[in-house]
# Entry
Amino acid sequence: MNLKSISFGLLLTSLTGPTLAWTVSADFDSGELGTKADRGGDGFSGAGGNSIYTNEQTVSGNAAKLTIEKGSTGYGRWGGGFMFPEKIGSGDTIWYQVYTYFPVGFDHYSYSEGNRLKFLRIHTKSSSGSNHGYVDFYIDRHDNPNAFKWIYEGAAQWRNVGNPEDLIVLGQWESYQMRVTFDDVPRDLGGNAEVYIWKNGTLLQHITNRKTLKTDTDYSDRALLFTYWNGGSPKTQSMYVDNITLTTETPAGFDAQGTALIPSPIPNPPAKINILEIQ
# Structure
């Protein structure tokens, strides 16, 4: 692999079986403040047109400020994407973590086109490159007691994630992490497909009865953060993300059940900015 072609903080680590283990990190620490955090050395690798380097709110170093305009779906501008250095497929596992800061007053709900907001997304394709849908973690409807929803679009079966107490807390940093093992047969039926979802290192859901690939020859080559606001944003607003990690190497941390996960300490320093509405 030509490491010079990887332009978003890639570390190749070790060999685990037939797949090369890798880690993609976006800490947003190297870019010039106020410039686009997209297609650079430590930011998104695309679809992040309204993402800029900032120090207004950070977990450590700098962060990315994401902005969306009222009524806009934000396609190509809201959030961003990450291309994988190597394809991953049946039997492979990926961990995907992001730190988020939604300021007080931020409205993170969708009010049409399904009424759910796309959040963490991992794309799957057929062996010929056709779209086979996303493994999707959503922010649930405004009027739903569940905090989140999960779905693999290739199977089209929703799963509730979280309770009312797990709703996004405005005005503080939080971490969200999804671990996906790919297979076209769920673990409950003797296959390998399973999904873990954590918030701040606490397990919200372990899904073992859903497939994560449509066929056993499918693969994944990229992940997205947000990228499309179903129905358009209810207002012009900004939020922050930091220390995004995607890895196929088993992390060193563990949750309370002894399951491997990327460690996610939350510092929650005092808020620096309390106003988010852009006039």
The chain is about 0% helix and 40% strand. The first strand starts at residue 10 and ends at 16. The chain has one domain: 8-261.
